[in-house]
Specification:
Number of strands: 5
Shape: elongated
Bound molecules: zinc ion
Helix content: 40-55%
Distance between the termini: 30 Å
Order of helices and strands: EEHEHHHEHEHH
Structural class: alpha+beta
Length: 161
């Protein structure tokens, strides 16, 4: 598994996971590597590798100068270096929210009723979304019902494709 730090033409930074360097080159060549934030196919590898290489090289005996790169990428793959960038995290979060919204049944104003009915086993459990007031959402939470507040649902729905 090869984890690459990538950056699109709009300066969004994200991680790309590939089977190998060749796999990346192949997908990149066919235009399959796009920015998760804006869909820009003009992605390029970030220049963070040399910095990692320098750090790794310092920790290694001077007798093995050729191993800096290999050791650095192994280190990177182990996840010991800083995690995904903020931009990548935001993109993942937005995508996850869109998936929740897309897969959930819209019960509209019956949200609280449906949530309680599911909680009490009166109806089959499923993902639902709908509208409720902050006060009712608080009551549901106190009754032990998991409620996930979503930021402006209409905006998420509009961007659903
Ligand atoms: Zn982008």
């Amino acid at each position: 598994m090869k984890v690459l730090d990538l950056q699109c033409g709009q300066q969004h930074v994200f991680e790309g996971w590939f089977a190998s360097e060749d796999d990346f080159s192949d997908q990149f060549g066919r235009g399959l590597v796009t920015c998760p934030v804006c869909g820009d196919p003009q992605v390029q590898k970030m220049l963070s590798a040399p910095r990692l290489n320098l750090r790794a090289a310092r920790q290694e005996p001077a007798a093995t100068p050729g191993h800096g790169r290999a050791s650095a990428s192994k280190h990177r793959g182990g996840g010991a270096v800083a995690g995904p960038s903020v931009a990548a995290f935001q993109a993942q979060l937005l995508q996850a929210m869109r998936q929740v919204v897309a897969s959930a049944e819209d019960v509209g104003d019956r949200f609280a009723d449906q949530a309680r009915a599911m909680h009490q086993g009166e109806v089959e459990s499923r993902n639902i979304r709908g509208r409720t007031t902050p006060e009712v959402a608080m009551e549901l939470a106190e009754e032990g019902i998991d409620v996930l507040p979503l930021p402006d649902l209409s905006v998420l729905k509009e961007t659903l494709q």
